[in-house]
Each structure stands twice: as C-alpha cells, then as structure tokens.
Amino acid sequence: MQDNVFNENVDYLYQVQTDLEAVEQLKRELTEYSNQEKNLKKAIATEEKSIQDEIVQTIRKRKSEIEKAYDGQIDANKGKTRSVRAKRDRAKSKRVDARVEMETADLTEENRQLQVEMKTLFKAQHVPAFCRSRFYYSLFMTKRFSEILTLLVTVLAACVGLPSLMYYLSTQIFFKGSKSITLFTTLTVSLTLLVLFVIYIVMLNAIKIKHYDVLLEGRAIIDKIAANKRQMRAIRNTINRDKDESVYGLDKYDDKLAELEKELNQISEEKQAAMTQFENETKQLLTNEVNDRRLPQLEAMQENVEEIEKQIALLEDDIMNSDLAITNNYGAVLGKEFCTPAKVADLISLMEDGTADTVSEAIAAYKGAGR
Questions:
Q1: Is 253 buried (19+), middle (13-18) or exposed (0-12) by CB count in 10 A?
Q2: How far apart are CA 178 and CA 287, in angstroms?
Q3: Residues 6+ apart with CB under 8 A from 295
Q4: 205 versus 125: which is more confidently predicted?
Q5: Could you tell me which of 345, 340, 338 has the C-alpha nearest to residue 367?
Q6: Are 315 and 26 in contact (CB under 8 A)?
Q7: For the whole prediction, is pTM greater than 0.85?
C-alpha cells in the first residue's frame, strides 16, 4: 500500500492538498469564532457595567430629587419661622421698653426735676454750666470708681499724651532743623505742663473753693440721679428676666410659630415616609425599568455567545477528527513534515514542472534540493 502511494502521481497530492486546506479553513473559522467570542464577551461585560451604572445613577438622581423637593419645603418653613421669630422679638422688645418706661416713669420724672433743680441752683449762684457735668465732678470732687477711672485717664492724657504730642510737633514741625531744638522742645513741653497746671489751679480756686457749698449740693443731686438710674437699670433687668410673656400680647406670633413647627414636623415625617417608600419600592421599580429596557439586548448578546461556543465546539471536533484522518491517511506515508499545505504545494510544483513523476521522486527531489 505504501509503495503504491509513493508511486502515485500528482493527483494524489492534489487530494492531500485539498484535505489539508480544508483543515486550515476550519482552523481559520475557529480563530474567527474565537475572536468573535472574545469581543462579544468583552461587549457583554461593558454592557453589564453600563446597565449597573445607569441603575445606580438613576436611583441616585431620583433620590436626590425627592430629598431636594422636601429640603426646599423645610428651608422655606425655617425661613418663615425665622421671620416670625424676628417679628416676635421686635414686638417683645418694644413692649418691654414700654413696660420699663411705664414702671420707671416716676424715676425718670424725678431725674428730670433734679436736673432742672441743679440747673436753676447753679444759674442762681452764677456757677458755670460745665460744672454740672460728670466730667467736672470726676476731676475736682472725685467719689465713685468710675470717676476715679475718668480722673486717671485725664491725668495720663494731660501729663503724658499732650506733652508727647507737643514734643513730636516741636521736633518734626515747629523747630525742625533748628540748632536749639532741644532747648525749644524742652520749653514747649514744660510750658504745656505749666499751662495745664495753671488751668487746674485756677478752676480749683476760682470755682470749687468759691462755690464749694453749691457744688456739694450738686454732688448730692448727681448722686441721687445716679441712684435713680441704678434703680431703673435694676427694674429693666428684673423685667428682662421675667419669664412670663403673657403681658406682652405675643399670642399671634406664638400661634404662628406653633403652626410652622407642626408643618415642619409634618414635612419631616412625609420626607421620612417618602424615603422609606423609595428604599422599599421605588428603588426596585427603577431597577426593573432599566433592566426591562436593556436586558433583552444583553440576553441576545449572551445567546450569540452561546451559539458561537457551540460552533467553536463543533469546529474543534471537526478539526480534531480531520487531523486524525490526515494523520491516519497521509501522515504514516508522507510523514508529519510533509503534512502541511506549503510542503505539499512544493511537491506539486516539482511534479508539475517535470522534475518528478511520482510522489516518492518529488519527496527525494525536495530533500535533494536542501529545502
């Protein structure tokens, strides 16, 4: 049998070539199907991710829309509440001021009369009007802590601040560039202190000593006015601490605030119910909507993959069977070396050009040519 094969003509090789090319064609088809399977699986993975992304984005967007709608109502409610509360505070403040004014009316009137009395007294005794001021009493008839502070600040300003200012003006403006700047500056500062001292002594002798009894009466009036003011502040503090607001007639504001608070609680409850419903029902409905719209295409792609996998399995079986058939039919005779389309084509060329008449001669010629 083998000898007969070796003596075959070129038709035998044509048959071998046809069988080998059929196997190669099957392998090309297998490669093509394998590439299709790979690309389709990649497309399926992309589509699955796209579906999940759309589901997540849709759920996030719808949830955000619901929250935004309710949060807008809540913000509007809080804005109204702030407005009503501000109006209530203003109304209470006005009515507290009115209550303070009413409860301190006697003290206010007494202070007014005391000021008139002091003005009349000082005018009758020809005491300068500025002597009625708290500042004058702080400098010349110091008594209370606040007056002591006023005196200390005034002394610092007069004995340190003003001389310092005069020193600066002397060195930078008045006597700048003068050869005797030190002398002139010293004289200016000393003169400033002297003038202040003289003014204080003159006021002390010309006013305080001369009108001492009147100033003492004025001192008593000022102390009485200050005591009345302390009492008025105490009354205001007592009224401010009073927790009973029923006397101010703020019911309409309180009713409105209670109504707004009830509305806020209702909105909050509705928002919670809506979010619970969204989590329990709407989320699944949105997921189903996306799946119903896009899963058919994905399932069709998966069916295509299954069909391709079946074709691949069939091709693999055909290739395996064809390889076995070629091995059994031609491999034992030609050898594995010549069971390729290219080698068989070379043998056919040698026989077609007359170099060999039989298969064995073609093989010998091929090997002899050192191919």
A1: buried
A2: 95
A3: 51
A4: 125
A5: 338
A6: yes
A7: no
